[in-house]
Each structure stands twice: as structure tokens, then as C-alpha cells.
Amino acid sequence: MEAARDTMIEQQVRTWNVFDDRVLDVMRQVHREVFAPGYGELAHMDAPIPLPHGQTMLPAKLHGRILQSLAVDSNDMVLEVGTGSGYLSACLSRLAARVRSLEIIPELAALAKTNLLAVAANNVAVELADALQLQEQSAYDAIAVTGSLPIYDERFQQALRIGGRMFIVVGQAPVMEAWKVTRTGEREWQHESLFETIIDPLINAPRPSTFVF
């Protein structure tokens, strides 16, 4: 497993422009196979890993880009939208002070809690909730949204503190963009396009209207 993990980091994550040593070290420390039971070394392959209810764990290279873009430090309060099996939560837990992770599917929330307990990620709180009902303001230093938004929703950027950073994917296949959103003032945000990718939308995320002629 250690060899598979090293290969994943060197051939997938680093080659996808992830050079932050803190991120690479955390991805070495967090055993990905714990969060993909039954897959063994396949948990380190360059592909999404199937999870219950038709969900997937994102590829490791994308997790690396998320972690690098957020630049989380040891004093940060982090929000994760879409816990899945808890892998990214565990990585964030080793970088941040506290992580609040929202998962809409009960079975996945329970699975993530079990997995996080197994790796002693004791500063992560997994909650069963629909993040699209979030109403918080200026509460987080970093936000990771692990499902895409076909239509951008400003509720997540409103939840950032000044100086806070958010990773989010916006658009519909075949054209989706990963953004880094930084709150620079009370009513000011900077949106930076990072790269193109395709990931599944958040459950209940609004879609553009379909016109029928």
C-alpha cells in the first residue's frame, strides 16, 4: 500500500501541478484505502472510486489541487460540502484547527464517521444536512465544495470570512471550471479560474431551465 500511495503522489498528484509539501505529506499520511474499503491498491488509481448511492470519491489529483488551492493553516475553521467517505475531511483535519463537513446521504455520513474515527480525525464534525440550505455568514476560513454547481450560488462565498478561500466547480458538462474564490472585503470577492474538470453536481443543485419548442 505504501508503494501504491507513493506512486499515486508522484505520478498523479505531483504531475497535476501539486507542489505544496504540506499537501503531499498529508496525502502520504492519510491512507486512502481506509476510505475505499474493498478496493485495496485500486483505491490509489487515477479514477473516481465508486461509493454507495451512485456517489464517487474524487481522484487523488483533484483532492491535491483542492488542498493546495485552499492553503489551509493550523488556525483555520474549514467547511466541507459533500463528505463522501471522508477522505478529504481526513486530509483537511491534519491541516486545519476544525473541520465541519456536510453530507446529505445518511449512509455516507455514517460511513465517513466510521472512517474518520479509524484514522483519529477527531477535529472533524460530520453533519447530515443539505448544504444548499446553508445560511451562515462570515463563518469559515476555507470552504471545499466537492460537487459541482450548474448555476453558481453565492451562499457559499457569503460564508467565507474576509481573507477566506473557497474551491468550487461551476458549470455543466462538457464545460466546467474549477474556481478559487477569495473574500477580499465585506462585499468583495475575487474569482480565479484554476482549470477545467468534470465532477457530479451537488444533490439538489439548481439546473438551468430547459427550453422545449
TrEMBL record:
Would you name any one GO CC term?
cytoplasm
- Carries keyword Methyltransferase? yes
Q: Does the keyword Methyltransferase apply?
A: yes
Q: Which UniProt keywords apply?
A: Methyltransferase, Transferase
Quote the InterPro entries the UniProt record gives. PCMT, SAM-dependent_MTases_sf
A GO term, aspect molecular function: protein-L-isoaspartate (D-aspartate) O-methyltransferase activity
Q: What are the GO BP annotations of this UniProt entry? A: methylation
Pfam short name (any one): PCMT
Family of this protein: Belongs to the methyltransferase superfamily. L-isoaspartyl/D-aspartyl protein methyltransferase family.
Q: What is this protein called?
A: Protein-L-isoaspartate O-methyltransferase
Q: What is the lineage of its organism?
A: Bacteria, Pseudomonadati, Pseudomonadota, Gammaproteobacteria, Steroidobacterales
